[in-house]
Every structure is written in structure tokens, then in C-alpha cells.
Write a structure and sequence with these properties.
Layout (H helix, E strand, L loop, with lengths): L1 E2 L7 E9 L4 E10 L25 H18 L22 E8 L5 E7 L2 E7 L9 H13 L12 E8 L5 E6 L7 H7 L3 E7 L7 E5 L3 E5 L2 E5 L9 H12 L1
């Protein structure tokens, strides 16, 4: 039975919300006995936000839980018995992501919500500002600037009920914004002027459509160790630079 916002060794009361033949989901009703690994969640959005799932546990306990997930998956699915592997910690527990995607929804009353999906309610969006602990600090600053710049009803963004906004920051501090969805181009030049460091605004109608440059550069410069290259708006790059370097060092070793 999968229950959000719980921790190993806790005693809880839950309500089953979804039942299947081999598993079920439930919601936490009462925390009867807390684990020693529990802590107050650092993020102000955590109680309702589905963006993070184990922030209510101390970081060392999070690493142990992740190791146990790997060990249990190998045992249950692969039939392989082994000790829980070591999980190398991230150099930064918070403010580590160099790319973040936000969902934006225009409401019938003319308002706008933009952020992550509500915990357990993927049909709803929780409005998230720069207090989110995931983005690198300059990325959070750019998100705050964009929210202030898109205007009432997000009039400077492309029209449409639902948009997906992905902000990315390179090692040099250059920023890019990819807008997915929309029935027109909006006012990308206004957004460029309003968000310091933003060098390109791009758009694609959906995941399968080509990317169109609305303003600025068609790509963004990136540096990864000794490699310099131009990064396409939709390209994948590890979102946690510090952890990625540890992974690369391990592979090379």
C-alpha cells in the first residue's frame, strides 16, 4: 500500500483511495507514531505540492530510503539478493536544478495559476513562486521576473488555456525559455526585456512539433567541464550539475 508523506518505521492511520489486485494507494489520515527520521518539510508548498515526495524526511534518511528502493526492486523483480547499495549524496540538497518545467493554466475568471500539480490531483495546478527549493537561485529569480512580466491573464504569453513553461540556465548564467502549447506567439520580446539573462524564447505546439524561435538566439551556449557547445531548446542535460559530475567521475574511474 503506497502512502504519500509517510516514512519507514512509522505507525499511521490511512484511508485506501485506490485498490488493485497486487497493490493499493492510500492517503495519510493520522500520524500515530512518528519516525526518528521525520522533520518539518523545509518548503512552504510541501503540504499540497506534488513536486517533491520525501522532503518530510531528513536527507540522510532519504538516501537510505532510496538505497532500499533499489535493493527491494532487485529482490522482488529480479530475484537478486544483495545489501542496500551506497547512495552518494548530492552536493546541494536544495537549489540544484538547472532546468524546471511549470504548468500554466488560465482560469475562467481571468486569473492564472502556474506551478506544479497538486499532490494526488494531477488535474489541478498549485501556484508556485520563487520560494520553491528546486531551481538554482538565478533560475528562481528568472521565474519571479517572468511571473511579474507576463501581465494580467498572462497576456504576454501565447494564448491558450494550458501552457508548459520550461526554464533552463547554463553554466555561464544564460537563460532560455521553452513554451509548449499556445495558439499564437505572444510577446516574446517583452519577456526577453523583463527577465535578466534570458537570451532565447522558443515555442512548440506540442511534444512532436518542431521548435520555433520567438525571440533571441535559436540555442543557448553551454559548458560542461571542458566541453563548450550549443544546447538545443529541447535537449536533455542532467538537471543536477553537482551530482552529474560525481556520476561522471565514477564512470570514468
Amino acid at each position: 500500500v503506497f502512502v504519500h508523506r509517510t516514512a519507514p518505521d512509522e505507525t499511521v492511520r490511512v484511508r485506501v483511495t485506490e485498490g488493485r489486485k497486487r497493490w493499493a494507494r492510500a492517503e495519510l489520515i493520522e500520524l500515530v507514531e512518528a519516525s526518528a527520521s521525520r522533520r518539518p518539510a523545509p518548503c512552504v508548498h510541501y503540504n499540497r505540492c506534488g513536486g517533491c515526495t520525501i522532503e518530510h524526511m531528513r536527507y540522510d534518511a532519504q538516501l537510505r530510503a532510496k538505497a532500499e528502493i533499489v535493493r527491494e526492486a532487485l529482490r522482488r523483480i529480479g530475484g537478486i539478493e544483495l545489501d542496500a547499495p551506497e547512495v552518494v549524496p548530492s552536493p546541494n540538497e536544495f537549489r540544484y536544478r538547472n532546468r524546471v518545467s511549470f504548468a500554466l493554466k488560465r482560469l475562467r475568471d481571468g486569473g492564472v495559476v502556474a506551478g506544479f500539480h497538486v499532490l494526488g490531483r494531477p488535474d489541478r495546478i498549485l501556484d508556485i513562486g520563487d520560494a520553491c527549493l528546486q531551481p538554482e537561485p538565478p533560475l528562481a529569480d528568472a521565474w519571479r521576473a517572468l511571473r511579474a512580466a507576463w501581465g494580467p491573464g498572462a497576456a504576454h504569453l501565447p494564448a491558450g488555456a494550458d501552457l508548459r513553461l520550461t526554464l533552463r540556465i547554463g553554466e555561464s548564467g544564460a537563460l532560455g525559455l521553452l513554451i509548449e502549447g499556445g495558439t499564437d506567439e505572444g510577446d516574446a520580446e517583452h519577456l526577453m526585456r523583463s527577465a535578466p539573462g534570458l537570451i532565447g524564447v522558443w515555442q512548440r505546439a506540442d511534444r512532436g512539433s518542431p521548435v520555433v524561435t520567438l525571440a533571441g538566439a535559436p540555442s543557448m551556449p553551454e559548458r560542461w567541464d571542458d566541453f563548450e557547445f550549443e544546447l538545443a531548446p529541447t535537449a536533455f542535460l542532467q538537471v543536477n550539475r553537482g551530482t552529474a559530475r560525481l556520476l561522471e567521475d565514477h564512470v570514468l574511474e
